[in-house]
Fold this protein.
Amino acid sequence: MIGVDYSFPILRRARELQSDEGIQLLNAEAYHLPLSSESVDAVVCVGVLQTLTYEKKALREIHRILKPGGVLFLDGINGLGLNELIRWKPVDRLRTHNPFILRKYLEQDGFQTLKIVGTYILPSFFLSLEHHLESKKVFQKMDDLLSLFIFFARAFILIGVKK
């Protein structure tokens, strides 16, 4: 397993918390990963996309290091979500994304997109309903009709496989 971050303090903290000596930690940016081409089985990219200026470049780099059949799990802040559409003032330095445009980018770069899953964070006055909604598989049904319900998703997870 390999962990990558551009921040030395984050890597230092990860080393302090590391329980498995077999995990390799690397300092690198998403645009220039110090790994051989087609050397990685899976990439889990969490909390990264919203900080990138050139997401296409980073996605191409991830594609380069993944083996054929390798899986990408990518999360992002939903630029189509109602929270973002009605926001008066954008959050500094965090970028939102349209998951359908990202899917297009991935497919152009040689990924097969398996799924886009919404992350639904309800306003506090709905929290009492959350258990009921989950028991009725409401969120699963919303994901099945994602193009209709994407506006309610705060974030998304995109899962792709390298062709």
Remarks:
- The first strand starts at residue 2 and ends at 5.
